[in-house]
């Protein structure tokens, strides 16, 4: 499952 | 951070700087789609609003700032400084046909119905199709200068490396972001035809021109 709180990719 | 993502980011950066340098040193933006560049500026602006809300790393922040500045510098060169060389007769792709549906989709399919998240989703969807005016322009004029081809190759390479990065992250961290992955795959597919032409023509020292 992804963590969508913070988008860490550019 | 893994090596695929890092090299992908650097490839993206190289593409952006290569384009800027080409326009600057030739004093011309002939063959470059101003619409694609405007869309990329919009992509970076809507995606990196989180510069104000979350800090990830010095690397992350500096890359975001550099991408935004370069995108606006490119738009400035095309629409202001070297406006006389802008090939608007061939840059006829209707950008609103991308922005409007993509905006609608961002409202409908997102991780979270908040303004920042909808804008992030919008930028992800828009990035996946933002190169279309440029590809359309090449298909209209039937050719691209080799430096424009290198630019597109680096952009496409960045997307392909991101797909490997997502595979890696899925297996190593269990991380996946379905919206980014689906949009990223769509974007990479758009480059496939171009990759084929690039490998068969540009690498062998020919100008990229489409078969008659």
UniProtKB/TrEMBL annotation, chain B:
<keyword id="KW-0931">ER-Golgi transport</keyword>
<dbReference type="GO" id="GO:0005783">
    <property type="term" value="C:endoplasmic reticulum"/>
</dbReference>
<keyword id="KW-0812">Transmembrane</keyword>
<dbReference type="GO" id="GO:0046923">
    <property type="term" value="F:ER retention sequence binding"/>
</dbReference>
<dbReference type="GO" id="GO:0015031">
    <property type="term" value="P:protein transport"/>
</dbReference>
<keyword id="KW-0653">Protein transport</keyword>
<dbReference type="GO" id="GO:0016192">
    <property type="term" value="P:vesicle-mediated transport"/>
</dbReference>
<feature type="transmembrane region" description="Helical">
    <location>
        <begin position="119"/>
        <end position="138"/>
    </location>
</feature>
<dbReference type="InterPro" id="IPR000133">
    <property type="entry name" value="ER_ret_rcpt"/>
</dbReference>
<dbReference type="GO" id="GO:0005789">
    <property type="term" value="C:endoplasmic reticulum membrane"/>
</dbReference>
<feature type="transmembrane region" description="Helical">
    <location>
        <begin position="174"/>
        <end position="199"/>
    </location>
</feature>
<feature type="transmembrane region" description="Helical">
    <location>
        <begin position="150"/>
        <end position="168"/>
    </location>
</feature>
<keyword id="KW-0813">Transport</keyword>
<comment type="similarity">
    <text>Belongs to the ERD2 family.</text>
</comment>
<keyword id="KW-1133">Transmembrane helix</keyword>
<dbReference type="Pfam" id="PF00810">
    <property type="entry name" value="ER_lumen_recept"/>
</dbReference>
<dbReference type="GO" id="GO:0005801">
    <property type="term" value="C:cis-Golgi network"/>
</dbReference>
<feature type="transmembrane region" description="Helical">
    <location>
        <begin position="94"/>
        <end position="113"/>
    </location>
</feature>
<protein>
    <recommendedName>
        <fullName>ER lumen protein-retaining receptor</fullName>
    </recommendedName>
</protein>
<feature type="transmembrane region" description="Helical">
    <location>
        <begin position="65"/>
        <end position="82"/>
    </location>
</feature>
<dbReference type="GO" id="GO:0006621">
    <property type="term" value="P:protein retention in ER lumen"/>
</dbReference>
<keyword id="KW-0256">Endoplasmic reticulum</keyword>
<keyword id="KW-0472">Membrane</keyword>
<keyword id="KW-0675">Receptor</keyword>
């Amino acid at each position: 499952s992804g963590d969508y709180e913070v988008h860490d990719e550019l | 951070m893994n090596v695929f993502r890092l090299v992908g980011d650097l490839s993206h950066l190289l593409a952006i700087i290569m384009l800027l340098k080409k326009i600057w040193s030739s004093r011309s933006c002939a063959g470059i789609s101003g619409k694609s560049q405007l869309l990329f500026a919009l992509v970076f602006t809507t995606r990196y609003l989180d510069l104000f809300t979350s800090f990830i790393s010095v690397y992350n922040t500096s890359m975001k700032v550099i991408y935004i500045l370069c995108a606006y510098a490119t738009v400035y060169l095309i629409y202001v400084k070297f406006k006389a060389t802008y090939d608007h007769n061939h840059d006829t792709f209707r950008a609103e046909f991308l922005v409007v549906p993509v905006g609608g989709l961002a409202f409908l399919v997102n991780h979270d119905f908040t303004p920042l998240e909808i804008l992030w989703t919008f930028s992800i969807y828009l990035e996946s199709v933002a190169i279309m005016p440029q590809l359309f322009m090449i298909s209209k004029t039937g050719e691209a200068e080799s430096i424009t081809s290198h630019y597109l190759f680096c952009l496409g390479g960045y997307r392909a490396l991101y797909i490997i990065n997502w595979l890696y992250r899925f297996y190593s961290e269990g991380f996946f972001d379905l919206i980014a992955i689906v949009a990223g795959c769509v974007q990479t597919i758009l480059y496939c035809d171009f990759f084929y032409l690039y490998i068969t023509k540009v690498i062998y020292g020919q100008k990229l021109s489409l078969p008659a």
